[in-house]
Amino acid sequence: MDIYQYDDFQKQENGIKTIAGIDEAGRGPIAGPVVSAAVILPQGKRFPGLRDSKLVPEKERETLFFEILAYSNAVGVGICDVDVIDRLNILRAVRLSMEIAVKDLGIKPDLLLIDAVRIPKVDIKQITPIKGESKSAHIAAASIIAKVVRDRCMYYYHNIYPEYGFDRHKGYCTKEHIRMIQIHGPCLIHRKTFKKVLSLTLPF
User: Fold this and answer.
1) 3-state secondary structure string across 114-145
2) How far apart are CA 91 and CA 111, in angstroms?
3) What is the mean pLDDT of residues 170-181?
4) 135 burial type by CB count under 10 A (0-12 exposed, 13-18 middle, 19+ buried)
5) pLDDT exceeding 90 applies to what percent of the chain?
6) What is the DSSP pairing of strand 19-25 with strand 34-40?
7) Per-residue pLDDT reduced to its tens digit, 30-66
8) What is the pTM of this model?
9) Which of 15, 20, 100, 152 could staple 109 via S-S, CB 3.0–4.6 A?
10) How far apart are alpha carbons 105 and 74 in whole angstroms?
């Protein structure tokens, strides 16, 4: 069963017409926002190469990003910045960003396919497959949108804080990133409540 057949099967099984796929980018990094996207794909339209965003090279991801934006019935995006993440914790921030993305669609779907997370405050039927971005075309499309939007956020932050190398590691916990935090200390977009930041020996 390919990723489009999976979505068609869910429609038939649940007797519904409109699916929105939801995924997030930025749950694991120690800096930057978490970004979620919700996507309603057009019936019968296929996007060559559509798959989990982590498996798609950046140039191809950008192409898919614009194709999804151009042809989808609706696309919503939700962003929670580091202040929200540190205040709520990362799981609650992920759920909040997904809730915002669903509201941003402008269309109420009949079913949400979400990658391994449930959104308690959204009153729409939800199915949460593990590794959903490799099973569902809608979730894969959402993963592309979320990944590209978050990467662009990190390029923006790189211009403000070039010493950390956000354009390269996108806020993930690389050796380079850790070394820069130890030299310069955390900046305003570092997640201060994350253990990998709290446990570092800092210059102040």
Assistant:
1) ECCCCCCCCCCEEECCCCHHHCCHHHHHHHHH
2) 22
3) 95
4) buried
5) 93
6) antiparallel
7) 999 999 999 999 999 999 999 989 899 999 999 999 9
8) 0.95
9) 20
10) 6
Structure-block tokens of residue 22: 């939801």
State the pairing for strand pair 111-114/19-25: parallel
Residues 6+ apart with CB under 8 A from 41: 7, 19, 21, 47, 68, 71, 72, 73, 137, 138, 141
pLDDT of residue 196: 81
Query: How many other CB atoms sit within 10 Å of the CB of residue 145?
Result: 28
Place of tokens 């956000």: 166
| β 111-114/74-80 pair status | unpaired
Instruction: Report which residue type is found at 135.
Output: K
Six-digit token pair at 45? Answer: 């339209």
